[in-house]
Amino acid sequence: MKVPIIMTPGPTMVRANVRLARAEETTNPDIDLSFYDFYEDTCLKMANILKTHNQVRILSGEGILGLEAACASLTEKDDRVLIIENGVFGEGFGDFVKIYGGKPVYFRGDRKHKINLEDLKFFLEKDSNFKYATVVHCDTPSGVLNEIDKICPLLKEKGILTVVDSVAAMGGEELRVDDWNIDIVIGGSQKCLSAPPGLTILSISKDAFDVMENRKTQIASFYCNILNWRDYYKDKWFPYTPPISDIMGIRRAVENILEEKDILDRHMKIAKATREAIVSSGLELHTYDGYSNTVTVFNVPKNLDDKKVRKYMVDNFNVMIAGSFDYLDGKVLRIGHMGENARVHTVSYTLVALQKSLEMYGVKFKKDMAEVFFKEMEGCGIIIP
Ligand SMILES: *Cc1c(COP(=O)(O)O)cnc(C)c1O
């Protein structure tokens, strides 16, 4: 299989030491008690990244499992759940709530803007009778970044539990779970953490565990039951055999992040330079604000087929960027500068490939994107290898 440079908003590139960690010989993770310590220690390192004292669990399944597990574990029949949405993933939370018998109530934001805090405050003044609320940190199809640092404390003030999908932001955007009052935050291995797809990471507050514990009805799932995971260490029991090679891989990826001096600063500088290159060359960023430092989303130039451009990029430059889906299908292109992707050499090469490919299809550029990008990076005083 020929592997392109995957500059997509997940899955991202995986560093060699993570790939090698997954190839190591393994023990029986159910029976060998030393694995419980290894797993616990990996969760603690993850908690360090999340700035939390809450319990962290790493479950076997893609990010979607984390989203569904949060909804399955919290929702009882007829529970009112506030779905704060300004994008595809934001709205999708409502479907999980329905599956488990809850009643989603939507707070709909403008999809070209981050969630408006004043509007949300106004809404909550009138109605705040919700068991929990869901919100997405970075809604990847549009790249919009929401201010969960302000949204979650606002919700908790009203006694509403907070559930945040940070799959596309965790590890690349600031995330302070304790300071920001996030009851459940969900991440995925294949985005900024730069491990292969297959794992979801959750931190769970005491308030969230208490609500699960005090349900009137049983959680209507086994695989999505977070409560099953609460006492694994004390009981030396996992609900199912943990995917030990995946855990060894993510452990290494988490250590890579902790060993780096300032991974958020790297994301911030790369993202800012990428946006500057896009805008000054004459292309258009998709949203009007709320730019995530993990993905840059821009409009497909008029009368152009994004699939053709992307195919040209792969065929001629071996670089893969992403289109989008749902209401944005064919309308935007996305460069993922998450985790291992967020490097000067990979992003600059992607911009060269993108510009040459768009020029092939007749798009005119006001400036050379790679040149603008390099100038911005120099302005920051760093060139990261
Ligand atoms: C990637 C992602 C997920 C996981 O979904 P997949 O489409 O299965 O990769 C969940 N939420 C967000 C915001 C994501 O970016």
From TrEMBL:
Organism, by scientific name, is Clostridium acidisoli DSM 12555
Q: What positions does the entry give for substrate binding?
A: 334
The residue ranges of the Aminotransferase class V domain are 67-321
Alphabetized, the UniProt keywords read:
Aminotransferase, Pyridoxal phosphate, Transferase
Superkingdom: Bacteria
- Kindly give the Gene3D superfamilies that the UniProt entry links to this protein: Aspartate Aminotransferase, domain 1, Type I PLP-dependent aspartate aminotransferase-like (Major domain)
Q: What is this protein called?
A: Aspartate aminotransferase
Q: Which lineage do the record's taxonomy fields give for this organism?
A: Bacteria, Bacillati, Bacillota, Clostridia, Eubacteriales
Q: What cofactor requirement does the entry state?
A: pyridoxal 5'-phosphate
Q: Which residues carry this modification: N6-(pyridoxal phosphate)lysine?
A: 191
Q: Does the keyword Methyltransferase apply?
A: no
